[in-house]
Design a protein that fits this description.
- The structure is a single chain.
- The chain is of the alpha/beta class.
- It has two domains: 137 residues, Thiolase/Chalcone synthase (Peroxisomal Thiolase, Chain A, domain 1); 218 residues, Peroxisomal Thiolase, Chain A, domain 1.
- The chain contains 16 helices and eleven strands.
- The two termini are 19 Å apart.
């Protein structure tokens, strides 16, 4: 079977607001950069298919992928949409390449939350319409808070430890390229923040950012015709959970555990702590990466390891070493591709950090936000 690789990436935005660009212009900019990074491919003659990961509710437009082909250069080419996180699109493109029926597939995703006027209503719409949505809570993140509280109590994680993760992530973001919310704070300031919904404060939620990301995925044999600088996709797996939180065990991240077992089997990884050099993990709400760390078997005692600084800048378990969503911003469905861009840049050495120059494998994780537990994991390698 063909070996899928990431041949090029491009992005636009990653700012709190991009009023100077409309979303079509952002997609075009991201696509132009991706095609150049991929060795100057021609989307009209070289690309076999295009995939857009987007949700109509975020756009306010039905069948919103109708507005994608022009910007991507997809003239008379197949374009289809997956209503999910963009790592799910990567899984689709990966499968198409592996089948041997496609040589180059372009994946696109974007988010422009600065233009969404009814964010609360859209988030509430994402919940189970029978048992959850009719509750119509004042704060729609109350269900995320219930999960955070259940996980933290079960695993004996205190708020100081959670605060250490948040403060560390915001500081790490200062080293990245796309982190408008990166800052230097201390745990004391975190603990003084008022609750948005207990046990979560404003600092526990990633603020919104506008962004568009385009990734070119190709078979390795074809990629060599354009460039010898590509990154392999060793494996991808996605797992969907139940349709309602009333059926979930909020104390653990079951979907990540299942997806991790599958993708580790797929890639032959026995010990993720030793074999994976960096972990790019979803942190759009601060307790989620801690659930992922536990589910991936990276830590037996998350509270202890947080207090010891194992996930900090100089720690031995690099989690989002150049900042995650807390400093980058929540770019909605484009989040998975944002994690992939970070991993791609680390493996290519383009971020200028010698510490990660010998990293061979990076794990990428994304969980569809805000109410779904659909989780996708991917392993990228040199």
């Amino acid at each position: 079977m063909s070996q899928p690789v990431v041949l090029g990436i491009g992005y636009s935005g990653f700012q709190p607001s991009t009023s100077h660009y409309n979303i079509r212009e952002m997609i075009y900019e991201a696509a132009a950069k991706a095609y150049e990074d991929a060795g100057g491919i021609d989307p009209g003659s070289d690309v076999d298919a295009f995939v857009s990961c987007q949700e109509d509710f975020w756009e306010g437009i039905s069948i919103n992928d109708e507005f994608v082909p022009d910007q991507l250069g997809a003239v008379l080419k197949p374009v289809y949409t997956i209503s999910g996180d963009s790592l799910q699109c990567v899984l689709s493109a990966y499968s198409m390449i592996r089948s041997g029926a496609f040589d180059i597939v372009v994946v696109e995703s974007h988010g422009k939350p600065s233009e969404i006027l009814t964010m609360r209503d859209i988030i509430l719409m994402s919940y189970d319409p029978i048992y959850i949505r009719p509750l119509n809570p004042e704060n729609v993140f109350v269900f995320n808070a219930l999960e955070a509280k259940a996980f933290m109590e079960y695993n004996k994680i205190d708020r100081e430890a959670l605060g250490r993760y948040v403060i560390s992530s915001l500081r790490k973001g200062l080293r990245g390229r796309r982190n408008p919310y990166a800052s230097i704070k201390n745990v004391e300031a975190y603990l003084e923040e008022e609750y948005v919904v207990e046990p979560l404060t404003k600092l526990d939620f990633a603020p919104y950012s506008d962004a568009a990301v385009v990734v070119v995925i190709a078979s390795e044999d074809v990629a060599k015709k354009f460039s010898d600088e590509y990154i392999k996709i060793s494996g991808v797996w996605s797992v969907s959970g139940t349709s309602s939180i009333v059926y979930d065990d909020l104390r653990e991240d079951t979907m990540t555990k299942i997806a991790a077992r599958k993708v580790f089997d797929m890639t032959g990884i026995k010990d993720p702590v030793r074999e994976i050099g960096v972990f790019e993990i979803d942190e759009r709400i601060s307790h989620v990466p801690l659930m992922v760390i536990k589910a991936l078997r990276l830590s037996e005692d998350v509270n202890r390891d947080l207090m010891m600084g194992r996930f900090d800048e100089e720690g031995d378990l690099p989690v989002n070493p150049f900042g995650g969503a807390l400093s980058e911003g929540n770019v909605l469905e484009a989040h998975g591709l944002a994690r992939l861009v970070n991993a791609y840049e680390i493996l290519k050495g383009s971020l200028g950090s010698r510490r990660y120059s010998d990293v061979e494998k990076i794990l990428i994780h994304s969980r569809r936000w805000p109410s779904s537990r659909t989780t996708t994991l991917a392993i990228l390698s040199r």
